[in-house]
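From the shared-data thread, chain only:
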Amino acid sequence: MTRISVSVAAEQLRRRVPGGIGTYARGLLMGMSELSEAERPSITIVASRAPAGPDPLKDLGDRLVCSRLPGPLMTRAWDLGLTRVGRGTDVVHSVSLAAPVPASGLPLVMTVHDVAWRSMPEAYPARGRRWHEAALRRAASRAAFVIAPSQATAEAVLAADVGIADKRVVVVNEGSDHLGEPDAEAAQSLLERLGVSGPYLLTVSTLEPRKNLARLIEAYGIARPRLAEPWPLVVVGPTGWGPSVEPAALGSTAGVVFAGAVDGGVLAAIYSGARCSAYVPILEGFGLPVVESMAQGTPVVSSPVPSSGGASLEIDPMSVASIAEGLVAAAGDEATRAALVKSGLARAAGLRWVETARAHVAVWQLALDETRASR
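Structure, as tokens:
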């Protein structure tokens, strides 16, 4: 059987802060490379104008097609349907709501990670809310199938009532094995530069309002005197948007240390060295930091996010007291820690990007088969 060929619109990987969607895109493509030769599709990466120098997207697929337009203009052209993508391939897949119109006759598959702008409008700038809403409606009219990373997200997409049929939404869990080997030496060097010389608590996310960092830091301030020692809270991740989540605004609590963005090997080592990690967003479509931490054998305190699968110590993200109690238990109670490590490793072991990739290929094939049958 001829291998299916897919154009993957991966513009998120050009963004200054690729975030969780960028991690998903890289994990998916990594999983594709691990499929057997018979299973693996031919992948063409589609993105905006290449930067000067070596293109970091060059080795992610079999081929790279770059627009002559910079990212913002290309995305706008996609929104307006002014350009077509995918000529010479069988299917177009967009890793986010920023999706092109496929070349004539090709099916489009899209991943919708969440519809948080609807339930948490205050966590998005007004322009962002308008764009997300319009993009979801375009998905309803353009996409043959929508992939959601969790059942909760699938239900939220259907509840949005924009015309996406139930049978067109497919749940595909994401993976946990994308960070690579821990780089202990580089992590230790970074922590030393930050003044962290012993045990620490950890949180990893893009700094933006819906990640709930202000409550987490307030909770840490309450929990810190109850810990065996005043262990610091290391905050890893790039600044997204919103003045209230700038490090200067969040860092007034003693012991909070901002590390910024780090690469995968350093992040894996920082996870593995933490007493516990905390991820307490108000709303989340999946929650990759939870399973990243679990894969490194670190106890996790989290909101009831889909990725946790019940393997974290779940707290109420709206309650500072609840978060504080979770931090104290996961960082200091050895029986709780041991149970969380065990459940977390088991949960992470069941989430592999190669399986995510295999499930995507099945959806792509279904979309292609339906398109061919309708001709």
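The chain has two domains: 5-175+352-373, 184-349.
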